[in-house]
Structure formats: C-alpha cells, structure tokens
Amino acid sequence: MEESDKQHGPGDATSKVHKILGVEGDATDKTLPVSSGSYQPIPKSSTAAAPDTDSDSDSDEEPTNVAYDYGTSEEWKDVNPVPLTAGSVMPIAFTPQFQMVFGYFRALLATGELSARGLQLCEDAARLNPANYAVWMYRRKVLAHLAVDLTGELQYISRVIEKNQKNYQVWYHRQKIVELLKDPSKEFDFTAKMLRKDAKNYHVWQYRQYILRYFDIFDHNELEFCDGLIRADPFNNSAWMHRYYVLVELPRACGRPSLLEGPALEREIQYTVAQLMGQAHNESPWSYLRGILRDHWAEHFPTVQAICSDLYSQNIRSPYLLAFMIDMYDEDIAQGFQATTDIQKGELLARVKAICSDLAVKHDVVRKAYWNYLSQQLAKKYERFLPAV
Amino acid sequence: MQQAENKDTSPASYRSHQRRTSSRDSERSHALPFWMGSEMPWTNSTEAQWETERRCEDLYLEHDVSTDPLESSIALKRKALKKFMLRGFDSLPSSYLTLDSSHPWLCFWILNGLRVLGEDIPVETAQKTISIIRACQTSTGGFGGGPAQAPHLAGTYAACMALCCVGTEEALSVIDRVGLKSFLFQMRQPSGAFTMCEDGEEDTRAVYCAVAVATLLDIPLSPLFDLAPDWLSDCQTYEGGFGAIPGAEAHGGYTYCSFTALYLLNKPTQCRLDDLCRWLSFRQMRYEGGFQGRTNKLVDSCYTFWQGAVFPLLQQVLKDRPDYTTVPMDSSLFDHTILQQYVLVCCQNVDGGISDKPGKGSDYYHTCYALAGLSIAQHNLFGDNDEIWGPATNRLEEMHPAFNLTIDCFFNARSFFIEN
C-alpha cells in the first residue's frame, strides 16, 4: 500500500488528538508540541539508546505528513481509540500523530479485530515506531487471517528495513515472510545491498546465515562474496566470521560434512596467510587461522610455524602474532609435533614465558595482567617440563 | 607505573597523524595505536578507528591523566548525573519515541544509574515506577514493553530489575511469581533456547533474561533450563566470545548474556574458558581504554559493563577451576585504570549524561551501563583494595556483575523472594 493513498492534512486531526490527549494527564501534556499540531519527524540525530539511525535513508519515500487522519475518517468512526491512562508510561514527548495512531492500535488489539484497515494502521504505527514488536506480531496475525499475498509484503518490509537496518523486529518479520513464501531468491541481493550500507551490521549477517541454514543452501558462492568484502576492508571481522560459517557451521547445522578438510583447508590457510603477510596487525585473520586450525594443528604445524618465524624475524611484534605463537607452542608442548623430548618442551615453555613477558612490558601493556596470568597458567600446566631448581 | 620504553619507536607516517610524546602522556605511551610501526591500509575500519582515537586524544591531552590515581582531578560529575537521571522521569525528548516499547527499560536504566551513584529513589519516583511497571504487566505474569503490549522477556527482565532498584515491599510484591514461572516455560524452545516473546526471535539475550529473573525470584532452575547450557555453549565462536545464536559472530552483549547464564546455571565450565578469556581481554582498546563489542569495531562505553562484568565472573571460575591450571588470581585481568579514564574523560557529556564515545550524545542506556561498568572497574573482587581512579568522591556502589544491580538492591530483593 502506498503512502500517497492516505495523505491527509494533519491539522484536521487535532480535535480528535486533543480528545485522546485530554485523558493523558498533566505530565505529558506539558511536553507535547500540540500548538502546531504538525507531524514531527523523529530526529535522525536521535541520541536514544535505540539502534543507530542511518543518515542515508531515502527520504523521498517518506512524506513528512504520514499519519492518516483516523479521527475524521468515515472508515474509522466505529472505533474508539484507547488512550494511555495517566502515569502508565514514561513521559516521552509523544507527538499528536503518535498518540492517535497508537490509540487506534490499542483499540484494535482490545477488540481482536483482524482486518485490512488494521494492516494500514500497522504501517503508520511501524513508521512511527518500528521497534514496537506488538505491531509486528499483530501484523502477522492479520496477514495470516486475511491470507494476504506476501509478495507485496516482502516489498513493503524491504522498504521498512532500508530505513531501519538495525532493528530486531523488522528482520524477524522478513524472516517469517520469507519462510511462508518459501523463496529465498531475493535474499542474497537484498542482504548484499544492506551490507553495502554497513558491512558489519550484525542483523544482516545473522539473517543471511539464517537464510542459508533454513533453506539448506550450499551451492551459493558465499566465499567469493566474503572475499569481495575482505578485499574492501580486511578488518571486517563479520566477513571473516561468515567464511567460517559457510565452511564449518552451516554444514554442521544442516547435517552435512565439514567443508574444511584437505585441499579446502589448505586453500583457506593460504588465503589467510596472504592477508597476514600484508597486515600482521589485523586481529581478524589471526583469529580465523586459529579457528580453522583448531582440530588440524598436526597436519599444518610446520607450515604455520614457518610463517610465524618469518614474520617474527622481520621484527614484527604484533600482539596478535605473538598471541598466536603462544598458542602454537602450547600445542607443540601438548602434542609433541616438533618438541618431542622433555628438554625441548622445557625450552619451548621458557620461550612462551619470554613472549608473555615481552607482551606484558613492551608490546601489549594494556593486557599486562592477562599476559602475566597466561604465563603463570602455562607454567603450571607444564611444570613437569621445567628444570628442577 | 608504565615506563616509556618504546617511546623511541618511530612511527611510520600515517596520514600525517602524529602521536604526542610529551611527558604527561608517558603513562599512555604503552598504548600507542595499533598500527604504529607499520603501514596500515586505509579502509572504513581504520578510518573510523583513527577518527575515534583522535577524538579521545584531544580529551586525554586536555585533561591531566596523571599516573597517580589520587592526583587526578577528573571527577565523576555526580550532581549533573543525578539531575540527568531524575529528569528522565519528568520528560523525555521525542528521540525516545522508538523506546515506546521499552518503558521498563527506561525505568531500569534510570533507577539503576541512581543506585550505582548511591542515591536513594525519591518516593514519588518509586510510585511512578510502580504504576508504569504495573501497566506493563500482563495476565500471563510476564511484562510487556508498554501498556497493551504482549509479554516479552526483555521487558520482564527490565521490569523485575527496576522493581528491585525501588526495593520496597510494595514494589517487589508487584511480581506474580506463579504466573511468571509459567510464562518462562512458554518461552522455552525444544532446543533449550528461549524466544523473546511469542512469535519472536530466539537468542542468548532471551536465555539470560529468563535465567536472571528465575534466579532472582527463586524459581527452580530445573527442569526449566536443563537444555539451556548445551545450546548456550553452541553459541561460543572460534574467536572465544559468544554470538546471538549458534554460528553468529562473537559480540560483547551476547557474550555477557551467554556466559552469565552459564554461570548462574552453575555450568560455566561448559565452554572453552581459555578462548573466552583471550577474546575478552583483547576487547579492551589499547589507546582509548574502553572496550569494543566485537573484533575490529569501535570502542563504546556500554561495553564497560557488558565486557567488564564478565571478568569477575570468569575470574571466579578460573580461580576455582578444578584442574591443574589453577593459578593465583589477585587482580583484574583487564586494565581497570584506563577503563575508568575512558568513561570519566571521554564520555561525560555536557548534558550530564554519559555517551557512547566522544562526539556522540548521551542517553540513559549508555549512562546506566557505563556507570555500572565503572563500578566493576573500581571494585576489584580479587584484590584487597578498591581501585578508584580520581578523587575519592568517584567511588560508586558495588555491583553484582551477574544481575547489574547494586549489592544492596540484590540482597534486599533476594531475601524478600526467599522469605515470601
């Protein structure tokens, strides 16, 4: 439904709005901009704890005077809006339109009416407060009750999400609609578009992973997609995480074997190492490398050790490199890849303690307490390899 | 305290960005930005990081961040904070309209902020809170985000905590424990996870809200949460932190929810503790001093609590770990000094509240979590002394890290629910 269908001058609504406000109580009256009666758009520079608003939303899609005049409408004259009782809410400066729309919304909730006009009301309510989960719950009930064609609903929720990308409710709503449509074909382009606006938006990544999992999609070229984002910004940890999701978490969730075996694992190691060589001060690839090696240290220990030694000999002292080396030596002591004798293990432990100490006093002093703790912990774990004093 | 050994490390020119080397920042010189000594690519991430550090730098240069905590003059602006908090019960600007489904949260953020400051709740404010929370109460026993809104676990958690902040018998009696218990059962999923509301999203927030409320109200944790630890441990990622659901990226808020829930369910060892400890430690920003929420994201004062409060819980577990890796635990594993500096120097806003980071406006959410986290940083559970940075008047009330209530409010409510 397009907004143009229901643009009305806001001035006419004031009488009805005042009727609602009259019951509201003194505290709120003082803060209401009732004098003009005009719709106050929610400031984009909102400082509220609500999810970030994005400055790049398409303003042409949203007329300023959005609220339909429910108060003078023939269609709504049988409905008595339910005002808020005095003192029942925090004293937010509700606009007259906000009061009006939610007054009617509460009325429909109270009567349990599931109707086409209810859908229209939802759009106004969701525009004023997209974080109101009750509005979306009600909307889904109406959609189901009226057996509405959900293709249009998908277009509608796309428009809403473009203006409210960091909001739980809108993404959940989209999820439910796509489940009913049984068609994930538009979801990759849509999420890619949203990631162009913010490549680390948590909701988008979680949603994209949901689509892959729910529809058990394993032939979409997700690694290429991640690679594009990582090339644009190697510090995009979400894109690294998504690689792991596609190779390990998704197959596991769908009951298929891990894609991180044999040549695929080697390819991932190469890919990650290329990133590390370019930038050793980026935590994301180091974490990723640790993640993909978790059950595979044995096969790849020599390769990884050579890389670390190379970087270290170039005088690189990135805390992420050093932290990784600590883990690598820990694995070697525990599993005996190269350090096979107690003496070798003892030497390695001394090396680990020296790295922890360097980190604590020179390279990563902010985490001094952590490095000292880790040093003690590993010494305790492997104390049998320490030379007797 | 911190020597300036590496001060002579000549930085690679990075967009002509020069770090200061004056004597008064010697204490922070250990915290030179992470790209020093190497050429960094100019990406969205590094650009935003650079800008944030620059804004913090301006403030750290402007204020005397001296080594001796007691010599510093950076005070917590208590009067302004109290005024800012109480103002929220008189009027909230229209930028808060999107919180019309979070009325219990607004109550909790404000009341808890006052409590952390050591303030009593004025009688009138207590009455307003009780009326608002009652209006959010539903016939199921759960609380919605506002009048006529369906019950929701986040609203329920916030409502219960807000009532605990008030702490009177009248306030605590609002809760319908029998109804609430059945509401929690309704939100439980076959996997052991919980949904936030009927026909709502499922994530680790929901589990935490349910566990925290059940624990506080003395509702039996079994069988309600029998499967929850398995589901929660699936949410731990390769990085070591926890995501919203299995497979999602590690994130400070979800990590707090997941690990605290495991802790309260007495199953904290059902996750990889060493990986968690490393991930958590790495979230403290070397230059800004505060915590980031995710790897390669920006510092944000709310994570002072979300990340900071996991430390005492995790350290408690590591300390009592029933294996050979137990070592003495006599201090916080994060740098409590620079964390306090971040909140006090970089985030106190002219309007009296606390903001996310320099250049952003303040709000009740950030103010509540920054103050609660500041308290966590001040009160070292693993040493003999508190670590108050700045004047002694900066001292805040001690918090229970697993509930985000002051110790007094927590025990007051807890004994009420055990007795009744």
From TrEMBL, chain A:
The keyword Repeat applies. Its EC number is 2.5.1.58, 2.5.1.59. It holds the Pfam family PPTA. It is an enzyme of class 2 (transferase). Residues 1-72 are annotated as: Disordered. It comes from the Eukaryota. Keywords: Magnesium, Prenyltransferase, Repeat, Transferase. PROSITE patterns: PFTA. Its cofactor is Mg(2+). GO terms for cellular component: CAAX-protein geranylgeranyltransferase complex; protein farnesyltransferase complex. GO terms for molecular function: CAAX-protein geranylgeranyltransferase activity; protein farnesyltransferase activity. InterPro entries: Prenyl_trans_a. Residues 53-63 have a biased composition (Acidic residues). This is Protein farnesyltransferase/geranylgeranyltransferase type-1 subunit alpha. It comes from Hypsibius exemplaris (Freshwater tardigrade).
From TrEMBL, chain B:
Its cofactor is Zn(2+). Residues 1-29 are annotated as: Disordered. It catalyses: L-cysteinyl-[protein] + (2E,6E)-farnesyl diphosphate = S-(2E,6E)-farnesyl-L-cysteinyl-[protein] + diphosphate. One of its GO terms (molecular function) is protein farnesyltransferase activity. Binds 1 zinc ion per subunit. GO terms for biological process: prenylation. Transmembrane segments: none annotated. It is an enzyme of class 2 (transferase). Keywords: Metal-binding, Prenyltransferase, Repeat, Transferase, Zinc. Residues 76-405 form the Prenyltransferase alpha-alpha toroid domain. CDD domains: FTase. The keyword Zinc applies. Its EC number is 2.5.1.58. Catalyzes the transfer of a farnesyl moiety from farnesyl diphosphate to a cysteine at the fourth position from the C-terminus of several proteins. The beta subunit is responsible for peptide-binding. Heterodimer of an alpha and a beta subunit. Belongs to the protein prenyltransferase subunit beta family. This is Protein farnesyltransferase subunit beta.
